[in-house]
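User: Quick sanity check before I run a bigger batch. Here is a single chain. Can you write out its predicted 3D structure?
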Amino acid sequence: FAGRSPTQPLTGADFAFGVLLTATGYVFGSFLTLVTAYPFSLSWSEGNRLYDYSIPFGSGRYQFVGQPDGTYDSVGRSLLWGLAFLVRDLPIWAHRLWNAFLSTAPHLLLGYLLARWSRIGGRERWLFGMWFFLFLAQGPIYTPLILSAILLIMTVSLSRWLLSAFGAALAGYYASLSRWTWLPASATWAGFLMLADFRLKKGEGWLAAAKRLIPVAVAALAGLAGGALANPKLFRPAKIAQGTSLSQPLLWYRLFPNSTSSLGLLLSLAIAVLPLVVLLIWAQASGRWKLNWVQILAFSLPSLALLGAGLVMSVKIGGGNNLHNLDMFLISLAFLAAILLRDLGGLKTEGLGWLPRSALALALLIPAWNALWVGVGLDLPPRAETAETLKVIRKQVERAAQAGEVLFMDQRQLLTFGYIQDMPLVAEYEKKYVMDQAMADNARYFADFYEDLRNKRFALIVAPPLFLIEKGSEFRWGEENDAWQKWVVAPLLCYYKPIRTFTNDSVQLLTPRDTPKNCPAGLETP
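Assistant: Done. Predicted structure follows.
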């Protein structure tokens, strides 16, 4: 490393720095492998998400039939990823590069800013920044929540309560605009940052102490108010009840080892955070980290609440394979680690026993190890095969458009980036939204869908490959698959037949059947 003598032996800090640097580079590289001009979706939802992101600033490129459902995808997320659509005619690879940047750089920046806030410098600052980046990559954590935390770091301070309240309100607004379940995040972390410097004065009465806590309460309430204003439906319980979030089943067995997650949520979470939790508890119990009772309550109770909320969200159908729904809890722990470093004046290892040393080593190395599983190399079809697939789809779509409407249930990015041009876009029945309704058993929603299928509204449907295969919980994503089979695949194949299936590019083309076939019970024939 720079400034070291070549003969100077490596220390534990040198080793940790090298491991974290290597793992950080690996994560960045993993995202860069996704930067490709491949026209079809790289994952189950990636292509249609690119379409979602184009709506705020690029909706003029579509000839909509009906109105796009702008309330489905998170507005804050669409606005952020959609900034790239302000530059006209950017190719698909450039948007994937923007995604790689947004999925990495803000997280590393937040780690660096939090290290600077902790008043540590030199190599320790970069070591903490890289550890923070890798610790959050275990989620992973969506970028809008990271940007909200950055805003808090830049504005919140116990000595500047007006600026703190404004920053907390703005951070809360943006976080909740992106995902309404992030409502408590800004209030929690604003409280953490302001209480980090809160000290009880000797002989001070509780009333005097309470008065000094007013700025903290104001900032926390401002964060909650900002989040609430971003989601007016929070003031209308009936509106929330109509959504899918509260009607989708909870799969509690995914807390434990299962077919979707070999470790289960609890064991995965314990591996990711237990060493850090042990360090935090040990530092406080040993007297090295001197917290007063206000800080102990303010740091522990919200963290436990966010842990509980994250576990509930994680076991909802559609989740449970990683820790991303525990995002607020993970960031809270990382904030507490920064507060600990701030109070200790840096990473102090002198005189530590085997327990804190072991916990520290594991806390540093486990996120680096988990980073090895962040990404895998792309396995794309040969270019000639992809070009032929695109050629056939264009021909079929153009032919079908002369007879009726074409539904792009999937692969809407083909219209977004001009691979298929001058084609009206039916706004309804986008795959991700349809899947959300299927997992909620929303029969009312599917009534209109089945009516359109029955009436052969669409001359052609562009969909993912559809096969009638029920799985059950003993298979990976079994419940999700079976909901998709019940509400979408079976009715679709009742009224429509596949005419071409491109397995390597995950595309299927379907046209109406002359007569319905193998229809599920309850579906009427025309």
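The radius of gyration is 26 Å.

User: Great, the batch can go ahead then.
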